[in-house]
Amino acid sequence: QVGQVFLYFQWDSLLLEAGFLAVLVAPLRLLKWRSTAWRPHDSVTFWLVRWLLFRLMFASGVVKLTSRCPTWWGLTALTYHYETQCIPTPVAWFAHQLPVWFQKFSVVATYVIEIAIPVLFFAPIRRLRLFAFYSQVLLQVLIILTGNYNFFNMLTIVLAFSLLDEEHVGRWLGRGKRRHASAWPPSLLSFLSTLLELSTYGLLLYWSVQSFGLEINWEKRLLDSKVAFTYHEFTTWLHAVTLPLVGLGFLSLSLEILFALYRCFCIRGCFWKLWAMLQWAVFATATMGMFAVSLVPFTYIDYESNGKLWPGIHQMFGAVERFQVVNSYGLFRRMTGVGGRPEVVLEGSYDKQTWT
């Protein structure tokens, strides 16, 4: 707010919110002689990072359609984006030369990554969360290669690390545990998990094809795409899913809190068990408070759902709104520079006759 419009972009708000969450995620070591790098309640506070990533990505995808921007609805936004963004990179020139059908398909892929895949952040199947992680990182890396948005994309990638687990990161570092050869036939749980995973991929593909009319044109050797739904249909869908998504988040957080409580009971020693439970109670309460407050800016994407929130949540949000610890997001709501980008031209002259 001190920098006014110059420091009032959404990624500045994102930096504030992520910085505040780092206070909760960072280890609190009051009893240093018995401190460890891991605490039973770590997954609870770390869940807030995942929730922030979900709100950022889902809202950013939704607002592109609720804004009624003709380029986003016509899937032509990227035909303007690369040459009219603030600071394009040299790679942006090559991206701008890509054929129109590929630019339109890239917009479809953006919708899928930002609207559909974020739901998988809370999937109980580990491989689905890893798929969601690499999808988000791919999008951010492509943005980094074609445009300079300072720390925004790097920070988003950091938030995406909340989708990983120690085992997967250990593989990157060469510390992965060797898995024993899977027995055959596979267990019922493993079979159902694989079946659910494949069904999810199939449903995602079917939704993408139906929603965006994806069709291969063999004669012209290109991929046709178009938005196959109306604005009214989309807003109706958004109204139908907003509160259920809040419920999904609440269910996911509740499970994390219960699992953390169970880990507290597993600690040896009565004193350390009580100490862990005390920390669990404090951080679980703080996490539930942050989750509740974040529902107000999240439901801005559907004001009818926002009005259905408990009035106490609105009061809580009003009390902390000025600190910007929770914010609403919706990046690239409208495509700028469609009619040409205004440029600042500086001219100077030594003789007041010839201007350069």
Describe the structure.
The protein is mainly α and 356 residues long. It has one domain (10-26, 39-168, 194-323). Helices cover 61% and strands 2% of the residues. It is built from 14 helices and 2 strands. The protein has helices spanning 10-25, 42-66, 70-73, 78-84, 90-96, 100-116, 126-146, 152-160, 166-172, 188-212, 231-265, 270-298, 303-307, 311-320, and strands at 215-217, 222-224. The protein has a two-stranded antiparallel sheet. Strand 1 and strand 2 (222-224) form a beta hairpin. The protein is globular. The mean pLDDT is 91.
Largest sheet: 2 strands, antiparallel
What is the number of helical segments per DSSP (H or I, 4+ residues)?
A: 14
Shape, please?
A: globular
Poorly predicted ranges (pLDDT <50, ≥5 residues)?
A: none
The ordered string of helix (H) and strand (E) elements is HHHHHHHHHHEEHHHH
Structural class: mainly alpha
* Strand line-up in the sheet with most strands: 1-2
Beta-strand content bin? under 5%
- The number of E-state strands comes to 2
